[in-house]
Amino acid sequence: MSDQNVNPMLPDNFSISRIKTETDDTFTLELQPSKGILNLDFEPGQFNMLYVFGVGEIPISISGDPCSKDKLVHTTRVVGTVTKAMRKLRIGDQVGVRGPYGNPWPVELAKGKDVILVAGGIGLAPIRPVINHIIANRGDYNNVVLLYGTRTPQDILYPKEIAKWSEVHNILSFVTVDRAVGEWDGNVGVVTKLVARAPFDPHNAVAMACGPEVMMRFTILEMQKRGIPDESIFVSTERNMKCGIGMCGHCQFGAEFVCKDGPVFRYDKIAKLFEVWEV
Amino acid sequence: MEKKKKKYEKQLILPAGEFDVFLQALNKAGYEIIGPTVEDQAIVFDTITSSSELPTGWTDEQNAGSYRLHKTEENLFFDFNVSPHSWKKRLHLANLLLWQAKTNGSGFSIAESNGNIPKQAFLGVRSCDAAAIEKQDKIFLQGDYIDTAYKSRRDQTLIITVNCSKAGGNCFCTSMETGPYAKSGYDLSLTEIKKNGRYFFYLEIGSDEGASVLAGMPALEEASVDDDSFVRDKMREVSKMMKKNVDTTDIKSLFYDNYDNSIWTKIAERCMNCANCTMVCPTCFCTNVEDVTDLTGAEAERWRRWDSCFTMDFSYIHGGSVRPSAANRYRHWITHKFAAWHDQFDESGCVGCGRCITWCPVGIDITQEIQNLRKSKTPV
Question: Which chain B residues touch A250 with a CB distance below 8 Å?
Answer without folding.
Answer: 286, 288, 307, 314-315
